[in-house]
Amino acid sequence: MPQPTRTLILLKPDAVQRGLMGAVISRIEARGLKIVGMKLLQVDDALAHRHYSAHVGKPFFPGLLKFITSSPILAMAVQGENAVEVMRQMMGATDPAKAATGTIRADLGLAIGRNVIHGSDSPESAQTELALYFKPNELIDWRRDTEPWITES
Ligand code: DAT
Ligand code: MG
Q1: Which position has the higher pLDDT, 3 or 26?
Q2: Does residue 13 form part of some domain?
Q3: Is 150 a member of any domain?
Q4: How many CB atoms lie within 10 A of CB 110?
Q5: In what side-by-side order are the strands of the sheet with 117-119?
Q6: Residue 60: CB within 6 Å of ligand 1?
């Protein structure tokens, strides 16, 4: 049986401003993934540089930096079997215009610079990214009583 893994999900400033937090959280809950940490926060320049370190220097980085620091975000730690991959599939392609219908980015967005949601792209980056947003004691390994109706483990 696959072990549950955790991934970092951010609902970006556009999602918060547009009142889409609930819609996205509903999808995550309905899928059977479990939220084990949640925090509304303002990303500052330093955190943005650390989070998007792979993109510093790219042409779109100044716009990305301005966007991600423009308004609060909702950070979540999401847990479940293959949580990283499942969330990436639910999110869809980076550019909402190219994302498959039915994915969060396609259903809720239009532009690559306003693509609603971030999700870690590998279990390794999930570990690194979760540590940027959450202290260990802010992640709660709670027991969900519906578990046997969602997984076979
Ligand atoms: P993802 O968020 O799907 O992991 P990424 O890591 O390649 O995509 O890029 C991080 C964010 O940067 C992405 O969500 C939106 C922005 N971005 C990426 N490529 C871009 C581009 N060509 N033009 C504008 N923004 C871009
Ligand atoms: Mg990425």
Answers
A1: 26
A2: yes
A3: no
A4: 12
A5: 34-41, 73-81, 4-11, 117-119
A6: yes
